[in-house]
Amino acid sequence: MRTWNEIVAANPEHSENYARRWKNFQAEGKDIDGEARFLDALAPRGARILDAGCGTGRVGGVLAQRGHTVVGVDIDPVLIGHAQQDFPDQQWQVGDLALGEVPAGPFDIIFSAGNVMTFLAPAGRLPALRALAGQLAEDGRLVIGFGTDRGYHYRQFLQDCAEAGLTESLLLSTWDMKPFLPSSGFIVAVLERA
């Protein structure tokens, strides 16, 4: 699996195409808010939320519209530009999760949706998890979802989480709460500090 930077280097139009794809889904009336509904249900009202790998802000923006304070970070300045344009009242910044470039917490909820973890180089995954865990509020939750067939096996992910000082509180196969099955090809992990 290539990192996000490698994909963009190979195709400089990738970021704009990615942003356009999600806007087209929304214009077509497709339901693209499943992650936001799930996260909103987990969050206390008026939560402070970090969208780690926020892209265009499509999930964090919905959470902000539901009354949460959202901070987003993403490695791609083009996508951050879309987030700033579409959701100007929230804070969006460029940063590399694999280098620990995470906004200061504490956050009630930190989430990483959209296969973000699989776009990080393998050597950057554990540092990213440690950096995210370090910004959780005492009773905060870290929620990460990605396709397990994208070069990051769920067992290695869970081992990395434990090494980062995180413990599993819930494992699912989808954002609409189907129980985790290793054969599903997707994991949504709700984690807390150990």
From TrEMBL:
GO BP: methylation
GO molecular function terms listed in the Swiss-Prot or TrEMBL record: methyltransferase activity
Family annotation (InterPro entries): Methyltransf_25 (IPR041698), SAM-dependent_MTases_sf (IPR029063)
Pfam annotation, one family: Methyltransf_25
Protein name: Class I SAM-dependent methyltransferase
Domain Methyltransferase: 49-140
Keywords attached to this entry: Methyltransferase, Transferase
Domain of life: Bacteria
Native source species: Corynebacterium hindlerae
